[in-house]
């Protein structure tokens, strides 16, 4: 897996910028008179090598990322900040001030390079804090309906067993028998008991 393009760009920009900072520092007319400058160059060169090593990798582990950020915060950014403040002080000195070791225009010109590299390193540190090995396209949950799932069945009451096509039975009503039929049935019943026919009486 290749490095994220934005991270590669950030590494390249910071690496090119630190080379310019080293070059400008070594070209200063007061370079040999300032012992701290050699210390700065040593730290900047170490950071430059760390950036080159990072660019040679296909991936950057969390430890490598953290090491680059820590190195920049401890060894590079503080030195760049100090150089910027010193150059501002140099630019504000008069030409007759014996403490001025470089001209004001040169001090301001070098501050442009230093400030640009300061911003580039800070941007790179932000990129290094984002782990691009994390899956940015996690599997999305399946929200499509199952093809085996049909429409919901209509809800019915458990005791509802009536056939919807069969009409409900009519309410119970007693059978109405004609009066003559009632008398005839009674006479037959009386004869079966050996009694007299009520009609003959």
What key phrases describe this protein's structure?
single chain; mainly alpha; Four Helix Bundle (Hemerythrin (Met), subunit A); rod-shaped; 5 helices; 201 residues; 56% helix
Description:
This protein has 201 residues and is mostly helical. The chain has a domain at 5-128: Four Helix Bundle (Hemerythrin (Met), subunit A), CATH 1.20.120. Helix content is 56%, strand content 0%. The protein contains 5 helices and no strands. It has helices at 5-26, 35-55, 62-91, 104-128, 179-192. The protein is rod-shaped and about 160 Å long. Residues 135-150 have a biased composition (Polar residues). Residues 131-179 are annotated as: Disordered.
Walk me through the topology.
Blueprint: H1 5-26, H2 35-55, H3 62-91, H4 104-128, H5 179-192
Helix pairs in contact: 1-2, 1-4, 2-3, 3-4
- Report the CATH topology name of one domain: Four Helix Bundle (Hemerythrin (Met), subunit A)
Mean pLDDT: 82
Q: In which range does the helix fraction lie?
A: 55-70%
Unreliable segments (pLDDT under 50, ≥5 consecutive)?
Answer: none
Name of the level-1 CATH class of one domain: Mainly Alpha
Shape: rod-shaped
Structural class: mainly alpha
Strand-residue proportion: under 5%
Tell me what the CATH architecture of one domain is: Up-down Bundle
Strand elements, count: 0
Q: Strand-and-helix sequence, N→C?
A: HHHHH
